[in-house]
């Protein structure tokens, strides 16, 4: 679902300020167990670029977002980086990657969109490719700051991925509260 909040300069600046003290370092540490350094990685929904900068130390990473405002910020801050406009659902790229990473992006997709995205992720990954995504834990969905937010539990995430991916890691972690988030790492079948 389209996320208008991330599309204006004011809201992008607000998000960058709100998120300035959080990063996905622990998630990327987990990913490193499964994806060798120097692998090619597509990051979906790079946003402020905090995780892109961590990924960039270990991987050949391409950042992406479907917000031109975030892309402008990413390109200004990282002049040597590669950033492309990609929608998480359609992933319209001809490039193929060893890994796909996102941190708190996929929860903006409806169930139907998440299924489409998973099929596209399968297509744009090399053999044995690895995905690594974080989600907010919970039930149902809501509109927050005008954004669609789809909450998930471990059991239903497993169902989404299991046809096309072997699950390597699936567990809760703490973002702001105990076990409020879920990390999934899986390998293309
Ligand atoms: C909650 S922010 C997370 C940003 C960053 N990953 C982080 O950890 O701070 C969600 C990001 O996903 C992007 N986004 C939302 N829906 C998207 C979609 N359908 N396709 C691509 N990016 C999307 C937004 O523009 C925003 O950058």
Automatic annotation (TrEMBL):
Task: Show where the Methyltransferase domain sits.
Answer: 41-129
Q: Which GO terms describe its biological process?
A: methylation
Superkingdom assignment: Bacteria
Which Gene Ontology terms cover its molecular function? methyltransferase activity
Q: Fetch the InterPro entries from UniProt.
A: Methyltransf_25 (IPR041698), SAM-dependent_MTases_sf (IPR029063)
Per UniProt, the keywords (alphabetical) are:
Methyltransferase, Transferase
Could you identify this protein by its name?
Methyltransferase domain-containing protein
